[in-house]
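During the no-cost extension, the postdoctoral fellow (Dr. R.K.) reprocessed legacy sequence entries with the updated structure-token encoder. One reprocessed record is reproduced below for audit purposes.
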Amino acid sequence: MDKLVHWEIPSTDLEKSKKFFAGLFGWKMQDIPGGEYTLFEVEDGIGGGFNKVDKIPKPGIRVYIEVQDIPATLKKAEELGGKPAQDKTEIGGGMGFCAAFLDPCGCRIGLWSKT
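Re-encoded structure tokens follow.
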């Protein structure tokens, strides 16, 4: 537990991002219904996704860490000087739940759990 399980690269053009990273690294792509998200699979590594955005946010790349209890982890992050950024939210499609906090320096860190 408490391991990196997913990361995201924002993209203003999913087709360009898919073509670039598939060509550069050989990543396999899987479009998610709705056209706003594409998962990528990294051989012998941690996969992630491209999320469609109008403008690249700061910071750009996001990481998600698998935890046992999202609310408890958010509380602990706040106790240690972090700030809540997103409450526990169901992802949908049976893909679990996510949340996020800002670390004391303002870096956004995602959390993920199955329940």
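The mean pLDDT is 88. The domain at 67-115 is CATH 3.10.180.10 (2,3-Dihydroxybiphenyl 1,2-Dioxygenase; domain 1). The remaining legacy entries will be reprocessed before the final report is submitted.
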